């Protein structure tokens, strides 16, 4: 299976890789973000998060990286998942349409289904600094859609973080299909993973 091959290929690689972790917990995902932020916290970054919910991760990035040129943009319906996923029902993560409350002028949110909002919103976004794309929509459909929307913006040294990569029919499969469709334009160099490849980061080369 492709996911097993991916795991074994990257077994002894990465700045962080906890495989095999007997105590995988959702909280451990912070370790991957901390590893990235250690290098990026004093640099201007454009952080794009697809799937924001209550905003834990966009808060973490914007409160750790205080560089004035940095920007943090979060995309979400704020109405929860559009489809059921791994035992979670449609509507799970519903925020009743409310944005997270973050008092930082560098942070903004785009509310709507990605399929209706991302294309237009990206026209008004900047990409000249190193971009960090955090793909945390869980679903195959949402992740694949976003990958194709950001495709033309990608550049060397941009970072892609997947939050549920080991849900291999979803985020992993979306990335596999995306890679097949872009003429091998990018090498996705493995930065690291936590929770037995649940959360995974790549840098583009
Ligand atoms: C796991 S939550 C995000 C968690 C968040 N990144 C954090 O760190 O706390 C997934 C989110 O993706 C959003 N989402 C999934 N597919 C979407 C779509 N097609 N359009 C808009 N939002 C979507 C859901 O509304 C949900 O809030």
UniProtKB/TrEMBL annotation:
<protein>
    <submittedName>
        <fullName>TylF/MycF/NovP-related O-methyltransferase</fullName>
        <ecNumber>2.1.1.-</ecNumber>
    </submittedName>
</protein>
<keyword id="KW-0808">Transferase</keyword>
<dbReference type="InterPro" id="IPR029063">
    <property type="entry name" value="SAM-dependent_MTases_sf"/>
</dbReference>
<dbReference type="InterPro" id="IPR008884">
    <property type="entry name" value="TylF_MeTrfase"/>
</dbReference>
<dbReference type="GO" id="GO:0032259">
    <property type="term" value="P:methylation"/>
</dbReference>
<dbReference type="Pfam" id="PF05711">
    <property type="entry name" value="TylF"/>
</dbReference>
<dbReference type="GO" id="GO:0008168">
    <property type="term" value="F:methyltransferase activity"/>
</dbReference>
<keyword id="KW-0489">Methyltransferase</keyword>
